Amino acid sequence: AMGTLVLLRHGQSVWNAENLFTGWVDVPLSETGEQEARRGGELMRETGLLPDVVHTSLLRRAISTANLALDAADRHWIPVRRDWRLNERHYGALQGKDKKQTLDEFGEEQFMRWRRSYDEPPPAIERGSEFDQSGDPRYAFDEVPATECLADVVARFLPYWESAVVPDLRAGKTVLLAAHGNSLRALVKHLDGVSDSDIVGLNIPTGIPLRYELDDELRPTVAGGTYLDPEAAKT
Ligand SMILES: O=C1c2ccccc2C(=O)c2c1cc(NS(=O)(=O)c1ccccc1O)c(O)c2O
Predict the structure, then answer these.
(1) DSSP 17-46
(2) ipTM of the prediction
(3) Hey, whose CA ends up nearest to atom 5 of ligand 1?
């Protein structure tokens, strides 16, 4: 039968605490974020939801989340695949900026339009600037984006979903995806058929494993999946 899909959004990073647009900047988890990851693993262990394979982005906040959660679930030994297509959305020239800087530089009207938009990306990041990652060796084999809107994240995520994750599910495996707010939004949009306008407002709680049981056509048996700790997911 079809395997089980478990989504795990990484918790607080050292930049979240400062409300900075992080995107592809590779910042670590904060102590709080590490604790969230361990808690997620404990929930999987307590529930008996034990991943057979894990997929992560190329960013340490997702990789550490997977490592800490799997260690807590005694599943640290399972095979892993990592791909840029699971990365957080690229925030272009906004990477490294906070709310005030964004408002000062682009104004309230543009800020609110971006915030509500599905297909309007921020300005491209300047190659070679402080928070540009294009020279990073992990992206040597791909043409990396200079900015992304949510529609771009969906478009670059789905090829990985189809080619790398779906085969694991069809093989009956329990698959853990340790990723980011916007890359997981892209997947939830695809699985649950969420509209372009609704997906912008859909926030997946951090650190709480979200379980999807899928039928043979990869349709969720419960729309939106089931959180392993529904109470904690309400915050
Ligand atoms: O300005 C944006 C924005 C701009 C361009 C593309 C996408 C977004 C976007 O998705 C977004 C924004 C602000 C906030 N909230 S915030 O204004 O509190 C904020 C500002 C700066 C950094 C992080 C913050 O949390 C969000 O929650 C968002 O999801």
Answers:
(1) GGTB--TT--PPBPHHHHHHHHHHHHHHHH
(2) 0.91
(3) 114
